[in-house]
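note to self: dont lose this again. the chain is below, predicted strucutre after it. 220 aa total, dont forget to put it in the shared folder this time
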Amino acid sequence: MAEKSERPTINVAVVRGAAPSLYDWVLIGAEEEGVPTKLAEAASGDVVDAAYAAAISSRIDIGVAIGADAIVLHERHMPPEKPVLTIPYEGKSEAVCRRAGANAARMVARLPLLFEDAVEDVDEQVRPASERRAAARSAASAPAKTAAASWDGNGGGMPAQGQARAEGSAARTCTNQHAAETARPTAGEAASQLALSEAEIRKIVKIVVAIIKERGTQWR
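---
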């Protein structure tokens, strides 16, 4: 039996044939849940056996093995051939490894595991530092005309996406103005609505005269 590591960590083994960079994503998922990891030597070429060996060597009894096609999460009290989780990558190896790291940490904290039908795409903000630096260098070395490719056909002016938003805003403004003008009555319509008949005017005059007489003021 392998000796337990001195530091309480989730031990992670990378099986031969798997991409070593996937360990970074297991680390990210575990650290997001507040638990550290340690890269351990793969004790076997079989991903399930390697995960169980990693769990045995961990002081917190949790091990992960990264295979070429799937990642395995194991716990030392489980039967060696029955891991807690075996998750195939299905084209999303980075996101799957990140999720496996989070689940390994949640096992330590005794929290519910994260199960979703679709694994989310990798967030650029949590991409390993080495990949972020490589992307930044690539962007910095790109020709200036690449940045201008999204602008209008004359090589200047407003970016296509911004232009679309501006045109959409202008269209909405025109629509709102048209609606307001349609709802606003014309001067002639307003005058016709305010016009009173002769009978209505006489009735108003009689009411005013009656009010004045009641107040004791002589009507002249």
